[in-house]
Amino acid sequence: MLKTLSCWILVFLYAALIFYLSSGPITADVPGNDKLYHMIEYGIFSLLLYNALSSSFRKEYPWKIALLAIIFTVLYGVSDEFHQLFVPSRSADPYDVVADASGAIIAQGLISIRKRFFA
Hints:
Layout: H1 2-21, H2 33-56, H3 62-84, H4 94-118
Helix pairs in contact: 1-2, 2-3, 2-4, 3-4
């Protein structure tokens, strides 16, 4: 029970960090690299979600847990872009959501590879 709770606390803290970072002005102007940052940021978020979901539900169908982690990650990415519409000096970019989804999918693929070949 304590492991499950700590996994979810990490998810919510990381989500709060993403919200905080997207609430301020852009600190670095690195065209093109921002998509890589989105992939890494949301890939980590997807990993944290996978850990929390897998500690909360039966592990009979790990692909369902991975799919849920991807879906929740993308939905949070969409909500973050919507949030940025209301932040001065920020804007919503649909390609950021594509980068978020790519990061989530890559992260879940890495989990699958790790489980299949290194378990």
